[in-house]
Design a protein that fits this description.
This protein is mainly alpha-helical. The chain contains 6 helices and 4 strands; from the N terminus they run H-E-H-E-H-H-E-H-E-H. The N and C termini lie close together (6 Å).
Length: 153
């Protein structure tokens, strides 16, 4: 299970707060991640997500990473090593992502499964379970860390 840092929560609020109230409700979260996302995993827009579409997304992210590495002056030899390693692992990574979302095991993520997965991701960010992601969620996580409590996954 993934844990989200205060920085991640801050980024979500900044990126997804459509109405300017410094918090993000599930509708804003879902619309940003799914409905209006240019980065939708549903590449062919058929309403389903397949493993192949996830591989495409991983490779698109890799292309962005390569551009950033070049800007930072990383050697081409090291960039080529990174590309080889990422391409080699992309199908395994796609299978893991699909497995997290595909609850009925048919190797496709249907709209209902995507909705359920997005709700789960939202709940991870909404630490105090008040229905919105806000600065309060950051403070709750930081308080747990300072007391040495394990982070809820």
């Amino acid at each position: 299970a993934q844990s989200y840092s205060g920085e991640k929560v801050n980024d979500v609020i900044y990126d997804m707060d459509d109405n300017g109230n410094r918090s993000v409700n599930f509708q804003e979260f879902y619309e940003d991640n799914v409905t209006y996302s240019d980065d939708s995993l549903d590449v062919n827009k058929d309403g389903y997500i397949s493993e192949g579409e996830i591989v495409i997304d991983i490779k698109e992210d890799l292309a962005k990473t390569v551009k950033e590495l070049r800007k930072l002056g990383v050697s081409e030899a090291n960039i080529k090593k990174t590309i080889r390693a990422e391409i080699k692992s992309s199908e395994a990574e796609a299978a893991k992502v699909l497995k997290k979302m595909d609850t009925d095991g048919d190797h496709l993520v249907e709209p209902e499964e995507l909705l359920a997965y997005q709700k789960k991701q939202f709940r991870k960010l909404d630490r105090n379970r008040d229905g919105v992601i806000s600065k309060v969620d950051i403070k709750k996580e930081e308080k747990k860390k300072s007391k040495g409590w394990p982070i809820r996954q």
